[in-house]
Amino acid sequence: MKKALITLMILAFTVPAYAADPGDWAYMGMENVGISFGMIGLAALDADTFVAATLLQSDVMVLGLKSTDGGNTIFEVLRGSDVTGLPIMVAAAAFDSNNVLMAGLQMTTITGGVWRSTHGGDQGSWEEVDLTGMMSFGSSIDYLECVTDTFGVALISPIKILATYDAGASWTALPSPISGSDVMLNGSSFLDENIGYVATGYDDSDTAKSLADDPAELALHRTRLRTSPVYRWQWEEKQRDSEKAILTEGIYKTMDGGQTWETLIDRMNWYASRIDMASEQYGVVVTEEEYGDHGNERIRYTDDGGKTWNTATAPESVPDAAYANYIISDIYMINNDLGYAAVMYGAGSIPIGGGMFITTDKGRTWDWEQYHDEGLGYMDMDMVGRTAGFAGGMSLSRARYEGVDDNTQPVADAGEDQEAMVMDTVALDGSGSVDPENDSLGFKWTLTDAPEGVVEIVYSDEHPYGETKTFMPDVEGDYTFELKVDDGQYSDTDEVIITVTQGSADDDADDDAADDVSDDDSADSDDDGVAAADDDDEDSEATGGCGC
Fold this sequence. Notes:
It is built from 4 helices and 38 strands. The strands form 10 sheets. Strands 33-36-1-35 form a 4-stranded mixed sheet, with no helix packed on it. A 4-stranded antiparallel sheet has the order 2-31-30-29, with no helix packed on it. Helix 2 (215-227) packs across helix 3 (229-238). It is globular, with a radius of gyration of 31 Å. The two termini are 53 Å apart.
């Protein structure tokens, strides 16, 4: 069977400017409960309701909180006395307004655990999920993500991923994109049940290595580094005058629900603590940089599906507190254009404030949306679509987001069907695609059907993203391309068929040369095939022919 390669090339195109209006963040205040009590994981259930996992407050062992009035007031929904095992909760997520999860570390067994409520997280509705055989000694569940109404993932240290397909009632182990006892799975971003991304990496400084003398202390350090922005910020402060080294792994992508993983990028000089992909083409990561950079954390963005990550422009300092450094505790892209980053800032060993960054250009530039010098900063945030969300942090500081509900589905247009010949340059044009709100669209071309012998597509820039592309077919037959356009919330698809033929045999170079020889006049025959002696066309003194 012939192996035919299709090479696609990007053509220049313009992206429509951002049009939809950003929403507003309202600071809802804090509680006088001390800096040791805060919301470390938060799950937004609807526009008025959230559930939060809390940092341990030793005197009352409060593990979970809830608000039903938009964050104006909060109340307890889970205490240590309500469940067995003295758990520490570090993550929360919600499938819908009823099915809520919290996760963390089961202290009595030193293993990770998941707790589930099917009644919106209300008091008395929490039950521990059976994870028999999935948790090893010293493990902890550090990150939760609810993707659809029933599908979700949990990241476990060391190096394990769990998936649920029934809204958290049961879980199954997925293959990990990496191996090794030291590497950390820091965050995930799944677009649906099939397409997902995982970010990894960790601090490998001499100070961190010194903790290896006490395995329990080292494990606790790495869990805190993954889950607590406060701890990460304080750790950075401790390292400010020492050399820092980062063991970098990479960012990985799955197209089959985590059964197999593709390495998008590895061995960077940074690691990603959080990742959020608005669509397959556009996304952002929060990064910690290598060697000697003990300042603010950074944001990197991709516009080619994660093959390359560029450093975004972000504030160098905090308004009215230029001496302070900040930690980006969480990041969320509402669509391809619009996103927010939750921030905690301070100096010394105590954070003193927080706020929000905003981007309206696909993560390329960020600026302060708001900031305040109370509340000691945010540690997590969560959204309900693009219209509502919450952020929470130390001293139970909290903020509420109200967005604009004006988004509708874009319309994909892959262009008209075409006819071409083998080795022609054929243009694929998706510029007819539109978004009603003029949000920027992500474009992905997929060859869904091809003639026998076509087994691989080779892209000139190694990715299938772009409004317009060209390809050069070397096998005749019908080529069907699917164009998917995505505004970061809704998507649409369209198909175009390119019918490729071999063309005329006379176009062959060897055939043309043969034609030239047979067409030339000779002594014996002319181009009409008649012998020269009998041909009126031949010039001759005997016949007086003119040769015409």
